[in-house]
């Protein structure tokens, strides 16, 4: 390109820039003339109100966009209709009755205690009441057919567990200085689990009271990490088959839960849909090994590669 072409190009840019500038000045003049009758304080108030309204609308759209939220709103609207209110009330009465019957179990003749007794009970009376209540179980869990609930082994193990319970009944893991043996055993169990998953010397863990708390603690760690990165309304991407505790954690910790459908043949998470669900606010990716409903293992390595590509 020679000097003449360059000059010609600059002239064209200058020409269109002058048109744009004149148009902006004219628009600004008309806007000022339109707003001149109003007090500055009124204009400031209207501006702030507009910003607030837009942010509120965007937040509402974001909530409706969350999977399941629009279904909840639709359900609430339908059940608020006059005809549906009576049906809803009837169903609630049936549920309350069912809960009451399940609480009393097979022994409705036993008193339902709602306050501390005025007189103490003997040890034999307490044992007798406990045996009666124990016999009211609706399922024979000792047969080993309650997956995810009870895992009975054998009498020898049961006897050992009773002995350990008796030995450590009055220890308090919160006070590790008073009960160092409990701290040591917890640390050993954590390290065993880390070794199982090839954790190095920098890996760590903690002891929880059960599966739900373990999941919530993991979500808490990722939520806090997201906040350090400036993400204050994060989301997590999880398969439809993931444990329901992730929904609990999302509700408690203000993490948007994005559930991804499964492959209809393998029942593993749909990897393509999983990748598409990741946003710039995603703080954690979830996979199951195995997942709760069917015992199927999600494609862990492929999901790990997705995480690497995401750069977080």
TrEMBL record:
Cofactor: pyridoxal 5'-phosphate
Family the entry assigns: Belongs to the group II decarboxylase family. Sphingosine-1-phosphate lyase subfamily.
Cleavable signal peptide: none
Keywords: Lyase, Membrane, Pyridoxal phosphate, Transmembrane, Transmembrane helix
Name of the gene encoding the protein in the UniProt record: SGPL1
GO cellular component: endoplasmic reticulum; membrane
Enzyme class: lyase
Transmembrane segment boundaries: 41-61
GO molecular function terms listed in the Swiss-Prot or TrEMBL record: pyridoxal phosphate binding; sphinganine-1-phosphate aldolase activity
Name used for this protein in its record: sphinganine-1-phosphate aldolase
Keyword Transmembrane helix in record: yes
Entry's EC annotation: 4.1.2.27
One GO term of the biological process aspect: sphingolipid catabolic process
């Amino acid at each position: 390109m020679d000097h003449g072409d360059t000059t010609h190009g600059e002239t064209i840019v200058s020409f269109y820039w002058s048109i744009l500038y004149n148009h902006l000045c004219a628009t600004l003049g008309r806007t000022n003339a339109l707003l001149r009758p109003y007090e500055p304080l009124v204009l400031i108030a209207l501006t702030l109100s507009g910003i607030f309204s837009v942010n509120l609308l965007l937040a509402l759209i974001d909530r409706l966009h969350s999977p399941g939220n629009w279904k909840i709103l639709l359900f609430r609207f339908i059940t608020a209709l006059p005809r549906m209110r009576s049906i809803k009330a009837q169903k609630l009465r049936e549920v309350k009755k069912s809960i009451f019957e399940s609480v009393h179990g097979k022994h409705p003749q036993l008193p339902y205690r709602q306050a501390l007794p005025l007189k103490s009970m003997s040890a034999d009376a307490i044992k007798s009441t406990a045996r009666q209540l124990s016999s009211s179980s609706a399922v024979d869990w000792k047969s080993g057919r309650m997956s995810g609930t009870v895992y009975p082994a054998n009498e020898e193990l049961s006897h050992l567990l009773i002995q350990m319970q008796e030995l450590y009944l009055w220890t308090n893991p919160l006070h590790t200085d008073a009960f160092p043996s409990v701290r040591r055993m917890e640390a050993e169990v954590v390290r065993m689990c880390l070794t199982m998953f090839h954790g190095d010397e920098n890996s760590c863990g903690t002891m929880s009271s059960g599966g739900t708390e373990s999941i919530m603690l993991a979500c808490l760690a990722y939520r806090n990490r997201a906040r350090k990165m400036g993400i204050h309304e994060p989301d997590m991407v999880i398969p439809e088959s993931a444990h329901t505790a992730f929904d609990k954690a999302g509700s408690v910790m203000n993490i948007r839960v994005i559930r991804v459908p499964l492959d209809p043949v393998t029942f593993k998470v749909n990897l393509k849909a999983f990748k598409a669900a990741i946003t710039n606010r995603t703080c954690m990716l979830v996979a199951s090994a195995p997942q709760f409903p069917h015992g199927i293992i999600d494609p862990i390595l492929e999901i790990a590669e997705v995480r690497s590509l995401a750069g977080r």
